[in-house]
């Protein structure tokens, strides 16, 4: 698999020890409600599914984890249920964080749930490279441009569209591709650790159609310094997907796209060594492995 920066080198896997597993029991809440997670423990960059079930009709329900709100939604016929996504940022400090769900039933009974969710270190590859200085340091103009673009993306991901625009399961954006690589990989250039790789790289030749993983609204469709021709899709509830290095962009900001719509074509624009799709997923500003949402919501 080709990487996202124009440098090649040695790869070493940093093995990290997992913490002890926790029991995966449905946690009781008040008012006949239970809260269940798809897995009892989490690691950096992972995504968990939340299920809230009640014996009573639910009215409003909110979730909060580690100071950030948690997207929760109901599906058809789901007056007594809510689903949600718990997203663990790639660089969230390992530890235990309390998941709190509060709200009330239709009859006004208060709902309150509390669950400690452990976060362990992610198992990510590390690459140590020694390269010429000119490859490590972009020019001041390039740094300024990249900083402005980083802020622009941060502003997009900070905005939470209150309605859910997706409906059903998420797909991998390239036909026939079942996996990706490099999520969380960290490069150490001449002894200096860089930012971890925030998405999955999917293999594809230039010109391969790139499909929207689900329905949403295009938030950004333009050329950026690092990721080249880039499309960002807002799926609502703070869920965004990112598609980078495209050879061409076939949508524009503001477009509402259906699941599977062609957003552009695979390419090698931006800081890359060869054609591939850089696919990212951000949930409530947390960068998580996009491949996980495909499996987590496959029974929708
Ligand atoms: Zn990438």
Keywords:
single chain, mainly beta, 7-stranded antiparallel β-sheet, 5-stranded antiparallel β-sheet, 24 strands, binds zinc ion
Q: Which kinds of small molecule does this entry bind, naming each only once?
A: zinc ion
Tell me what portion of residues adopts beta-strand conformation: 35-45%
Seen as an oligomer or otherwise, the chain set is single chain
Instruction: Please give the count of helices.
Output: 3
Q: Let me know the average pLDDT.
A: 89
Please provide the ordered H/E string of secondary-structure elements. Answer: EEEEEEEEEEEEHHEEEEEEEEEEEEH
Give the N-terminus to C-terminus distance in angstroms.
31 Å
> Could you tell me the number of beta strands?
24
Structural class: mainly beta
Explain what this protein looks like in three dimensions.
- This protein is mainly β and 300 residues long.
- Strands 15, 17, 18, 19, 21, 23 and 24 form a seven-stranded antiparallel β-sheet that branches.
- A hairpin with a 4-residue loop joins strand 10 and strand 11.
- The chain is globular and about 65 Å long.
- Bound molecules: zinc ion (ZN).
- The site of zinc ion (ZN) has 6 residues, from loops.
């Amino acid at each position: 698999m080709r990487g996202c920066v124009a440098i090649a080198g040695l790869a070493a896997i940093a093995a990290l020890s997992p913490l002890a597993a926790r029991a995966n029991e449905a946690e009781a809440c008040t008012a006949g409600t239970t809260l269940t997670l798809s897995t009892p423990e989490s690691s950096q960059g992972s995504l968990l599914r939340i299920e809230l079930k009640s014996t009573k009709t639910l009215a409003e329900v909110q979730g909060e984890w580690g100071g950030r709100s948690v997207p929760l939604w109901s599906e058809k016929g789901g007056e007594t249920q809510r689903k949600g996504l718990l997203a663990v940022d790639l660089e969230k400090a390992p530890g235990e964080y309390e998941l709190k769900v509060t709200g009330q039933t239709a009859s006004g009974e208060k709902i309150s749930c509390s669950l400690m969710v452990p976060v362990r270190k992610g198992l990510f590859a590390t690459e140590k490279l020694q390269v010429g200085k000119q490859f490590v340091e972009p020019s001041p103009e390039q740094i300024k441009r990249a900083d402005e673009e980083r802020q622009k993306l941060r502003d997009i991901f900070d905005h939470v569209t209150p309605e859910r625009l997706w409906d059903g399961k998420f797909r991998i954006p390239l036909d026939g591709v079942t996996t990706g690589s490099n999520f969380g990989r960290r490069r150490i250039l001449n002894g200096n650790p860089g930012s971890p790789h925030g998405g999955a790289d999917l293999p594809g030749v230039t010109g391969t159609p790139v499909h929207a993983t689900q329905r949403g609204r295009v938030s950004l469709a333009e050329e950026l310094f690092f990721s080249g021709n880039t499309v960002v899709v807002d799926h609502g509830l703070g869920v965004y997907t990112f598609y980078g290095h495209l050879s061409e962009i076939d949508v524009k900001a503001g477009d509402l796209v259906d699941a599977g719509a062609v957003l552009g074509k695979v390419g090698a624009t931006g800081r890359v060594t060869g054609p591939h799709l850089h696919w990212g997923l951000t949930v409530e500003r947390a960068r998580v492995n996009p491949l996980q949402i495909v499996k987590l919501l496959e029974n929708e």
